[in-house]
């Protein structure tokens, strides 16, 4: 069919910001607020005890434990809610967004009320209950990254969308961890809790009143992808019309088809004898997942998907734990001190090596997810494994340099005064720790998308299984940080990343999800463009 000119749309919110980006922003806001709330009590024990003296060190540590336990327990519920179902059945995204926003509000509300009640016992239970609610929220936002990009975004935008949702949580952690350096009184923390509670209420109202479960047909990823291919193919055809009649060096005529030629090759090339096309197989796999139960889909995971889940869980879990335990690791080596509130924030940060390293790591980790998704969409289409391996290689080299900048011995914790630095001193070590956060996050996002592309699991299942593995490997490194010194942790993580690279190397890339959507639009786009080119 010939291409029909589309009238210029009137100015509206839709023309300024398409609905898929507004949905992404609303969901990322839940993730950001959860990361921000989590950083107030769970990641700042001194602040927690300053505000609530009823929290001892052991009880304060349980704010983190309750969060992790609740997150791990909610993972299989999230897999069920986000399971593949044939249209027009719900995708589960609205349910997840509602649960996430409500539990984030519950966490903010409990922590705020805990500062008002006089009973020490009630304070403790409110903080722990709020932490558990926060763990459920974390399971919602971190386990739905690939699902929201699959439902709302075309193939050439999915990695970027996944990266933005994934990074929002760590951006929230970064902001409020940095702000906490300026806290010197109870009022400062209370003011932060006021702001968080107000933002939580606003976000809940937006999610409950507006957040859609799936796009309408005019905004579906299939239509967006089709329109994009038509636009590119038409542009190539128009450009090719000006060169029609020219000849190449081998004497053949040049049509300048570009994308059109590739679409024709993909859509009209006959399949091998006795075999279906890759697009047909991909569509059959997608329909099979949609029709099967969520438990049976977990039993049918391929070996490549299992290896990839182990690899990305291992690398992500140990690095996230590494960033969180850096203050503790430096304290174990005598390199961190606590200064009273009459010191400036700059003075406190200058005397807390672990906080400086943790902030640098979190900052680049938050950037790396979004940047890695953008790089994957732009330069590594259908080559995500290559990007993951390149990031692992860079991370291995990075930790090798970290080992040199903070050389052993001692390998084990000695409590004998400070971490020693090699050539370049502490500034070089901070730069290296910061770049390690960038490469680690850049490896995670394309790995999540590669798992989703294989289509052996639904996006919700693969994403949440990675989050479960991240919890397990993170707990392992957190335990090791109590007995192994900071340089020793660098050596272990370097070995772990090498192991992850070895695990990923034999994996066969499969882009069943991409082939399924491409098979639907490729022939239609190609034939429409042929008619348009003939008319020129």
TrEMBL record:
Task: Give the stretches traversing the membrane.
Answer: 21-42, 62-82, 94-114, 126-153, 165-183, 189-211, 301-322, 357-375, 387-407, 427-452, 464-482, 488-507
The superkingdom of the source organism is Eukaryota
The record's listing under InterPro entries reads: FLVCR1-2_SLC49-like, MFS, MFS_trans_sf
For this record, the Gene Ontology CC terms, alphabetical, are: membrane
GO MF term list: transmembrane transporter activity
Supply the alphabetized keyword list: Membrane, Transmembrane, Transmembrane helix
Task: Give membrane topology per the record.
Answer: Multi-pass membrane protein
> Which stretches of sequence are listed as region Disordered?
236-261
Name where it's found: Membrane
Q: What is its main location?
A: membrane
Q: What is this protein called?
A: Uncharacterized protein
Source organism per entry reads Chrysochromulina tobinii
Tell me the classification of the organism that encodes this protein.
Answer: Eukaryota, Haptista, Haptophyta, Prymnesiophyceae, Prymnesiales
């Amino acid at each position: 069919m010939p291409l029909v000119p589309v009238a210029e749309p009137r100015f509206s919110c839709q023309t300024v910001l398409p609905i898929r980006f507004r949905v992404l922003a609303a969901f990322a806001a839940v993730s950001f607020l959860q990361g921000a709330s989590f950083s107030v009590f769970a990641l700042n024990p001194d602040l927690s005890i300053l505000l609530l003296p009823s929290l001892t060190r052991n009880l304060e540590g349980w704010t983190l434990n309750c969060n992790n336990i609740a997150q791990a327990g909610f993972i299989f519920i999230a897999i069920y809610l986000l399971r593949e179902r044939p249209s027009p059945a719900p995708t589960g995204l609205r349910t997840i967004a509602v649960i996430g926003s409500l539990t984030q509000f519950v966490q903010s509300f409990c922590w705020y009320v805990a500062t008002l009640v006089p009973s020490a016992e009630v304070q403790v239970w409110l903080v722990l209950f709020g932490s558990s609610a926060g763990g459920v929220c974390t399971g919602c936002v971190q386990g739905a990254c690939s699902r929201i990009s699959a439902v709302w975004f075309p193939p050439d935008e999915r990695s970027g969308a996944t990266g933005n949702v994934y990074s929002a949580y760590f951006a929230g952690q970064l902001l409020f961890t940095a702000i906490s350096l300026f806290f010197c009184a109870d009022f400062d923390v209370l003011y932060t809790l006021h702001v968080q509670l107000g933002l939580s209420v606003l976000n809940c109202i937006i999610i409950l009143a507006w957040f859609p479960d799936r796009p309408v047909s005019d905004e579906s990823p299939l239509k967006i992808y089709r329109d994009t291919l038509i636009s590119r193919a038409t542009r190539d055809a128009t450009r090719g019309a000006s060169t029609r009649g020219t000849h190449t060096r081998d004497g053949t005529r040049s049509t300048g088809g570009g994308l059109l030629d590739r679409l024709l090759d993909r859509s009209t090339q006959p399949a091998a004898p006795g075999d279906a096309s890759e697009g047909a197989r991909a569509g059959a796999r997608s329909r099979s997942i949609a029709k099967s139960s969520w438990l049976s889909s977990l039993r049918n995971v391929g070996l490549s998907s299992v290896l990839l889940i182990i690899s990305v869980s291992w690398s992500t879990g140990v690095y996230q734990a590494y960033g969180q335990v850096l203050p503790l690791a430096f304290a174990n080596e005598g390199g961190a001190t606590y200064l009273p509130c009459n010191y400036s924030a700059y003075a406190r940060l200058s005397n807390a090596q672990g906080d400086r390293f943790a902030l640098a790591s979190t900052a680049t980790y938050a950037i790396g997810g979004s940047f890695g998704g953008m790089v994957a969409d732009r330069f590594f289409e259908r080559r995500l494994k290559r990007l993951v391996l390149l990031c692992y290689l860079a991370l291995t080299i990075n930790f090798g340099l970290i080992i040199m900048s903070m050389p052993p011995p001692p390998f084990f914790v000695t409590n004998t005064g400070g971490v020693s630095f090699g050539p370049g001193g502490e500034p070089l070590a901070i730069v290296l720790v910061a770049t390690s956060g960038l490469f680690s996050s850049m490896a995670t996002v394309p790995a999540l998308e590669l798992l989703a592309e294989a289509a052996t699991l639904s996006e919700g299942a693969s994403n949440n299984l990675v989050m479960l593995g991240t919890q397990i490997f993170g707990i392992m490194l957190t335990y090791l940080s109590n007995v192994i010194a900071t340089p020793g942790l660098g050596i272990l993580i370097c070995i772990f990343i090498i192991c992850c690279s070895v695990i990923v190397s034999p994996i066969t890339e499969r882009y069943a999800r991409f082939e399924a959507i491409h098979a639907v639009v490729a022939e239609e786009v190609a034939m429409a463009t042929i008619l348009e080119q003939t008319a020129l």
